[in-house]
């Protein structure tokens, strides 16, 4: 078994001082005495603490580098977020260091714990779908490291967040299905521990309740098209089959559409399907997928803007920013050639 690396939290506990003091001592800031700094450095050496110091990392004016931790880069949403982050960072003379976790809580923890506080000025993070212990992020907050979460955010770490309005988006998706005449609506949800999963599920349930409708099933799983195939297959093995599916994201929606077609079930006419992302594939799959468009590029820019404000001003207040989503109506929710209308706040594409 791999031995856990010593963290600055371990050093702080051993010396009986705060994590923030240890962090400042290692960066040799003006408000830490030479005696305290020596105490910290001696303890770090004895405890085999190995920060990744680099030549520019100890410069008090900062590195002008920010770290970005994301679960994946191969899907549309994250690649678009990264574009927004990088453009804003470059406009403000910051370099972006990208770290991929492959949606693994182990790799996320390893990346964060081995990230040198002296090599970057701040961190943008999107947690994995399996992360349940957030102590590695809490250690950064205690060490005064500027930290902003985007998209997938933990509720327990008290720092700035930038997200899309998942709850309202889910309400719009469910309202649209009801407006199209569907009444037996199921929800293919994401992993239960994620804030976005909870918000989208709650929007779906509240909208059903508003219209005096019952849920025709909720299944929690991952975000892939294969998850979508497996989930819809499970639903259709039951006694009460849904006539519409609200998928937590587009990729699961793609899996649903492909499975329904393989079973000879007419998408739209017999079973409506709506997703959440506005992935470019949603336009070209047949039938095209109705969806809730997420402002991925804007989330990237705004999260980077908030992080840089925290870097430049330590007293900058915590932000909780929610950007609006938009209903995009396509063929997968149309009953007949024209359907029964586009529903509320819709934009046909």
From TrEMBL:
Residue ranges of domain HTH lacI-type in the record: 6-60
Record InterPro entries: HTH_LacI (IPR000843), LacI/GalR-like_sensor (IPR046335), Lambda_DNA-bd_dom_sf (IPR010982), Peripla_BP_I (IPR028082)
A Pfam family the protein falls into: LacI
Transmembrane regions listed in the UniProt entry: none
Keywords per UniProt: DNA-binding, Transcription, Transcription regulation
Protein name: LacI family transcriptional regulator
